[in-house]
Amino acid sequence: MQSLCLALAAKxxxxxxxxxxxxxxxxxxxxxxxxxxxxxxxxxxGRLVELTDERWEHILDRHRELRTLQSEIMHAVTSPTLIRAxxxxxxxxxxxADTGPSRWLQAVVAxxxxxxxxxxxxxxxxxx
Length: 128
Description:
Blueprint: H1 2-9, H2 13-22, H3 26-33, E1 37-42, E2 48-52, H4 53-62, H5 70-78, E3 82-85, E4 91-97, E5 104-112, E6 115-124
Helix pairs in contact: 2-3
């Protein structure tokens, strides 16, 4: 669905609306139609990692204190202090020390539909 969303996002709103009426997942496709790429970076292993406006809004909805730390979140992915496997097999956790409102800044990066993207980010007082 994510790769379909990226293809749809490149189209004009009118053609996306037409496609959405034809498809089964109307609401999901319409939500994807507004998804825009904010930034891309490479992690230490060379993976291209994306941040979309939808994921950025998700982060800010839950952690408003990170609103001025977008570049630091991207830096956590490019030059992390520590990397750990996530809870899911398609997930990696990137930590940056002494950044933001707490001891650690954690960026959760997930792999889905052929792409790596920042799924979430938040401050942490200690490592999990």
